[in-house]
Each structure stands twice: as structure tokens, then as C-alpha cells.
């Protein structure tokens, strides 16, 4: 579906999230730890933190399109909930949401089974609460996980920062960063690297933080970034994102720094395209009107052009450029064709029992990928 949309009165705020159609949701929740053979091969992202820190809200907003205001009515998690992110997403992985009262010294807590197959551990800290207890639990969690799986990526979400001033945000992040790393140094765990993110479900910061987490699970990330650098340098484009359409997570971008407002603009453009496509588009049988013909151009009132084009059924390229650069539309479309072809050459489509699994073209079809990295979804062109 082609959309040409020109906006001359775009408002200054881009903080609206959660306007995806319900058909872009994910699979059902599973609250036990029994795994099928296929799910056991997928890397895990573990969501941990104290009670009421916002773990379940993050999962619901990012992967289930729940409105942030609706998360106020979520009940506290009292058991481990496993969510299989597949089918609607380019990246295949599992999210395990842990209750805040997990006791690592409980004999029934199998650290080996839980941490061994994890690609990333996200620890959520409530920035609006006293975080001393959370820092103690963070240290205990990281030290236990590192002993079992030294390759795991440790991510710290300093959450609920929407209620803090900019100065308070910076001071809170600095204090948590300092205390957490000091605790690791005192325990002779200097090799452990913690990544810190300021997040809130009421803006796009949670999507950007999750983007950074997921990117570390994609072994082809350097190749994707290089392809984007080549594309924008030959097309006069200022910034380009490769988005997972369903979740608004960007799996790659060019080497230029990410400006938050630019990212928010691109997220809002995806919302517009999917909302209009769900109303006027023709569904392809899967309940989605997003297909190989999907294209959108939005011209803003500051000579900026937003350009969206389908790459695969799961991916979209969203670019930001100036109107004078867009006059060479034929060159951009030719370069995009080359870029799209290169993306499909990076990943070959292989059939599996539960859909198309994208594997690196250089790998053997019989080899099993490391659980640290996510398998990737794709579709025939």
C-alpha cells in the first residue's frame, strides 16, 4: 500500500505510544518453565528487579501494545512468566518475567537452568523509590548469573524517570552507576560490564533501550550498520533506521549518533502507516496490511522528509532527509533496491517447523547457533 502524506501542522510533542492495531501483538503468555524443543533453542532475555519496579509493564507496553495508562491495573507478578517473542517479530527470543521476591538461595531455584541459556539480563530499578535495596539485589543477581554464564549481557533500566527533573535523572544515573560498579569492584568482578539506560513507558525511551539490548543479540549487527552507512552516504540521507515493525525496536542504524526526537518521529511514522494501512489496506491473509508494497512519504513543515519502505514482512527502513535530497528520488529508490537485496543476501531463508528462520548465509544449516544470539525471522521475496 502506498501512502503520501503531507503535514504542515505537526505538533511539537511525539510522546504518543501504543497505537498499534491489536493484530500486531505477540504470542500467548506461558507461566511455567516447561519448554518445547524449539523454544529451548531461543536465547532468553531475563527481566528481574524488586516488586513493583515496572518489569511487567515494560513487557506489556513494548511487546503487547498495552497503553501505558492501562499498566496501572496490572497485578504484581507472583511467578515466573515466559513470553515467546516470535511469529510477529524479526528477532526470535524469549522474555522471562521474574517476580520481585525471587530467592536465589532457595533450593528450588535452578540458577544453572535459568542463566545458562540467557542472552541478556535486564535488571529494573525504580528511580522514584529508595534504590539501596535494589542495588543489593542487583549485585547478588549479577554475581550469581556471571558465575553460571560469563557471556551474558547485563543491562540496568533506571525506570520511571518520567517523574524526575533532568538534573535529578542525571544525578540518579550517576549515583546508581557509581555504587553498582563499586560493589562489583569490591567483589573482584571488574570484568563484568553493566549498561545503564534511563527509561519510561510514557515516552519512547523504553523502546530505544530495548533496541540497544536486542541489537547485542544480533551477530550480523556490524554488517547491517555498514550497509546502512553505505546507503545513506550515496543517497543524501541524514539518518536511517532498520525497524522491527511490530515492536518499534530498531535492530540497526547508521553510525551517526541517535537523536531522540528523530527516533520518536520514525516511531510515530510507523504508527501512522500501520494505522492507515489497517483501515484502507488489503490484508494478506495474516491479518496484516503491511506487505512488500508498503511505502510512505511524509513531508514536514521544516523541509524534512520522512521515508518508509518495506524491507521484509517484519522489517522497514525509515529514513530522514531534506527535501532537496528527496528530489533525487530515483537514485534513492535504486540504492534502496541494492540495500534490500544486500539484506536478503546477508540472511538466507531456511524453512523450519515453526516458520522461516533466518540464518547467516555463511553458516551451515546443520550447525546450532549460540544461545546468546537470537535467531531471525524472514520471508521469501
Automatic annotation (TrEMBL):
Role of this protein: Guanine nucleotide-binding protein that plays a crucial role in the cellular response to amino acid availability through regulation of the mTORC1 signaling cascade.
Major place of residence: cytoplasm
Pfam families per UniProt: Gtr1_RagA (PF04670)
Subcellular location: Cytoplasm; Lysosome; Lysosome membrane; Nucleus
GO CC, alphabetical: cytosol; Gtr1-Gtr2 GTPase complex; lysosomal membrane; nucleoplasm
InterPro entries per record: Gtr1_RagA, P-loop_NTPase, RagC/D
Species annotation: Maylandia zebra
Family: Belongs to the GTR/RAG GTP-binding protein family.
Region described as Disordered: 358-381
GO MF assignments: GDP binding; GTP binding; GTPase activity; GTPase binding; molecular adaptor activity; protein heterodimerization activity
CDD domains to which the protein is assigned, alphabetical: RagC_like (cd11385)
Catalytic activity: GTP + H2O = GDP + phosphate + H(+)
Keyword annotations: Cytoplasm, GTP-binding, Hydrolase, Lysosome, Membrane, Nucleotide-binding, Nucleus
Taxonomic classification: Eukaryota, Metazoa, Chordata, Craniata, Vertebrata
Transmembrane segments: none
Protein name: Ras-related GTP-binding protein
A biological-process GO annotation: positive regulation of TORC1 signaling
Amino acid at each position: 500500500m502506498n501512502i503520501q502524506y503531507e503535514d504542515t501542522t505537526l505538533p511539537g510533542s511525539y510522546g504518543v505510544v501504543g497505537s498499534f492495531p491489536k493484530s500486531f501483538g505477540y504470542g500467548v503468555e506461558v507461566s511455567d518453565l516447561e519448554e518445547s524443543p524449539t523454544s529451548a533453542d531461543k536465547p532468553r532475555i531475563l527481566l528481574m528487579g524488586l516488586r513493583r519496579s515496572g518489569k511487567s509493564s515494560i513487557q506489556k507496553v513494548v511487546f503487547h501494545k498495552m497503553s501505558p495508562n492501562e499498566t496501572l491495573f496490572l497485578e504484581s507478578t507472583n511467578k515466573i512468566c515466559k513470553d515467546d517473542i516470535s511469529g510477529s517479530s524479526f528477532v526470535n527470543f524469549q522474555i522471562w518475567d521474574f517476580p520481585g521476591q525471587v530467592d536465589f538461595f532457595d533450593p528450588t531455584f535452578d540458577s544453572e537452568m535459568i542463566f545458562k541459556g540467557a542472552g541478556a539480563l535486564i535488571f529494573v530499578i525504580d528511580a522514584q523509590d529508595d534504590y539501596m535495596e535494589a542495588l543489593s539485589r542487583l549485585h547478588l543477581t549479577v554475581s550469581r548469573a556471571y558465575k553460571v554464564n560469563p557471556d551474558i549481557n547485563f543491562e540496568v533500566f533506571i525506570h520511571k524517570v518520567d517523574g524526575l527533573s533532568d538534573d535529578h535523572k542525571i544525578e540518579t544515573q550517576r549515583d546508581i552507576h557509581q555504587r553498582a560498579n563499586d560493589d562489583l569492584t569490591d567483589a573482584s568482578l571488574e570484568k563484568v560490564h553493566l549498561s545503564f539506560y534511563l527509561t519510561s513507558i510514557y515516552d519512547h525511551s523504553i523502546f530505544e533501550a530495548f533496541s540497544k539490548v536486542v541489537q547485542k543479540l544480533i551477530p550480523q549487527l556490524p554488517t547491517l550498520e555498514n550497509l546502512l552507512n553505505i546507503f545513506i552516504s550515496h543517497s543524501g540521507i541524514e539518518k536511517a533506521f532498520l525497524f522491527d515493525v511490530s515492536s518499534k525496536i530498531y535492530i540497526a542504524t547508521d553510525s551517526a549518533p541517535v537523536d531522540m526526537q528523530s527516533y520518536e518521529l520514525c516511531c510515530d511514522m510507523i504508527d501512522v502507516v500501520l494505522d492507515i494501512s489497517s483501515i484502507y489496506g488489503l490484508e494478506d491473509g495474516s491479518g496484516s496490511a503491511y506487505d512488500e508494497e508498503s511505502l510512505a512519504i511524509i513531508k514536514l513543515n521544516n523541509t524534512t522528509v520522512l521515508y518508509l519502505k518495506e524491507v521484509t514482512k517484519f522489517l522497514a527502513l525509515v529514513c530522514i532527509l531534506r527535501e532537496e535530497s528527496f528530489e533525487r528520488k530515483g537514485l534513492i529508490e535504486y540504492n534502496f533496491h541494492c540495500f534490500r537485496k544486500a539484506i536478503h543476501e546477508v540472511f538466507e531463508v531456511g524453512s523450519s517447523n515453526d516458520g522461516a528462520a533466518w540464518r547467516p548465509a555463511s553458516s551451515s544449516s546443520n550447525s546450532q547457533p549460540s544461545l546468546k544470539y537470537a535467531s531471525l525471522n524472514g520471508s521469501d521475496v
